[in-house]
Design a protein that fits this description.
145 residues; alpha+beta; three-stranded antiparallel β-sheet; two-stranded antiparallel ribbon
Length: 145
């Protein structure tokens, strides 16, 4: 991430491209997924099949079939499907707002947004995606602590 412009004042989050591993400037990329893939993957199963119909062994062995959110430069991998321009999700309040907004989408539960959030919050993560501009160790306390 060398040679890139530092985040502007008031920006809580950096966007790091999952392809080239460089910072994404405003107007140059997006956080996106293809929700139609969730519908296509479900196929004829519809919403009838739930996790409660599987054994524990089957759930642990099951591949991750959720639709994955991507964070990329437009030039590295053009965003298709549902996209959020990086400049619209650079603060914690904006991230929370988008989470609440997306929860109203019927396809949202079929995505890995929860992994995106948890990785953003992990101060030890080296993964590209949305990263805090200032790393804070949250101590990984349990909810309610």
């Amino acid at each position: 991430m060398t040679g890139e412009t530092p985040p502007a004042a008031g920006q809580d989050l950096l966007a790091v491209c999952q392809i080239c591993l460089q910072l994404i400037a405003d107007g140059d990329g997006a956080v996106w997924c293809r929700p139609e893939a969730a519908t296509a993957e479900r196929g004829d199963r519809g919403d009838q099949e739930t996790w409660s119909s599987f054994t524990l062994e089957e759930m642990l062995a099951a591949p991750d079939e959720r639709v994955h959110w991507r964070v990329t430069h437009e030039r590295c991998e053009p965003a298709t499907g549902y996209l959020i321009a990086v400049e619209r999700i650079r603060t914690w309040p904006a991230y929370l707002h988008w989470t609440a907004h997306l929860m109203g989408k019927g396809w949202f539960a079929s995505t890995n947004w929860d992994d995106l959030i948890l990785d953003t919050l992990d101060p030890t993560s080296t993964q590209p995606g949305l990263r805090p501009a200032t790393v804070r160790d949250l101590g990984h306390r349990s909810v309610g602590d």
